[in-house]
Amino acid sequence: MTERRTTARTSSVVCTLGYSLKQVLREPAHSRGGEPLPSSLSARVSIHGISAKYWASKALKQSRSSAPETLCAWATLYGELFNDAYTSIRSMLISIELKNFKSYERASLPLSAMTFLIGANASGKSNVLEAIRLLNWLAKGSRLDDITRSIQSGDAVVRGQANDLLRDPLVSFSLGGRFESMPQGWGKFEISIGLVADQLVVTAESVAKPGEAVPLYQVDGLPNTHTDEISVAYNNFKRGRNKPHIPCSNRQAIFYQLETPGRFESGHQDSQRVIPAVTKAIRETLRNVVFLDPRPALMRDYAYVKDDLIKEDGSNLSAVLYQISQTSAQKTKLLAFIKSLPEQDITDIDFIKTDRNDVMVRLVESFGQKSRTVDAPLLSDGTLRVLAIGAALLTAPVGALVIIEEIDNGVHPSRAETLVRQLQAIASERGLRVLLTSHNPALLDALPDSALADVVACYRDPEEGDSRLVRLGDLDRYPELAAQGPLGQLMTRRVLDRFLKDSTTPEDRKSEALDWLNELRQSTQGGGE
């Protein structure tokens, strides 16, 4: 490839690995005669995957004497090529971290393939879900002033006012997560948000990884009332303690502002390559979180056929099911998920389609030797909820976190074990993380032994009053707890609550056991005399 060709105006480059690159130049392409080419024209250049890095690096060097926009274009090309390669492997959330958020002083929510979040009312379960929702909003590009207005007006599902987000109003709250399968292992993310002049602003944010002293980037400055700008130091992967800085807005998540390689100095090629790849992975992982709290009353109407991303309330259920049913393999999985849960046998899924491209789901049910077709308005609440759960699991992005509140609503206790088994199977097959809340003892009793350790209990500390999260498998006395019966029974008998709030140490319990044995021995000897 000649130098003339390396500086040609192209609108997209596609390498043989199949990674599509976004637009790399900010000005229109021109023909040899100098006339602007149509903006839709795309030049395609095939690059062998092995030589792509060398080619892009060489192009950057050749462009040193070129105009700044040309150099920026090559920096963008270089970064985009490897960003797509990095993020072709889906990153996954493995924990959510909270500090000074609502009822939590400090807590961590570990996420497994299937995690049940349990706890009494007012223990703090909903606050954890609201923390995840805030991260999801930030990943969608929401500005903090917009989030503040939504919360203050009561339009948002986050309860209370903006100042209620902070347990201690004088200290910023922090939310974060740990990710796996991140580019170069940069898997620890944290953002801190505080109140400045009654407005939510970013006060700190960083991405780090184990064994690395220097973070990938971090906020290096304090917010003030005179400007929305905040200074961010980024890792240039060079020796020295002084790191380069760039300005960002403190009204939006920093990771959302660092996906463009051109934001970093031209000589910092590793920064141009790695930082956008990591921030893109964080953004996509957090924005792909699926929230589901189905409302059967809203699921009985027609839905526009193209509205195929499941809404939180499930109101577009018919459209999502219609899209799933266009692929026979997906339709088979959906039928397998739902047919064993209702009392009747569901043999097929059909749809009513109007001239306006609206659709309504209808199920073919079998009772003995008879079958009938039932339209959505006549389906039971439980059947609609199961359909929505199946739709969410089958359409969520691979590796996504799916959150389903009160999973057992409308499901008969006798079907609880089947529901749990089906959930586990789809989550495992599609590499999902599924977070479920439930108060139903029958459903918790149906948990297999392999899932019991991953249950996370939420409770209030009796002395400090803050909410706590603990994975049952991490309890010192977990084997003793598991031996006392099914989880649902342990909750209703308040056995679990006693174990969670037990502040005794192993030494204390050993001493109590020895005292009891001594008393038993003495009473036995006394009886013998």
From TrEMBL:
Ranges for domain ATPase AAA-type core:
368-445
Q: Which intervals hold domain Endonuclease GajA/Old nuclease/RecF-like AAA?
A: 92-135
Q: Which InterPro entries match?
A: AAA_GajA/Old/RecF-like, ATPase_AAA_core, P-loop_NTPase
What are the GO BP annotations of this UniProt entry? Answer: DNA synthesis involved in DNA repair; double-strand break repair
User: Which Gene3D superfamilies did the record assign?
Assistant: P-loop containing nucleotide triphosphate hydrolases (3.40.50.300)
One GO MF annotation is:
ATP hydrolysis activity
Protein's name according to its UniProt entry? ATPase AAA-type core domain-containing protein
Record organism:
Pseudomonas corrugata
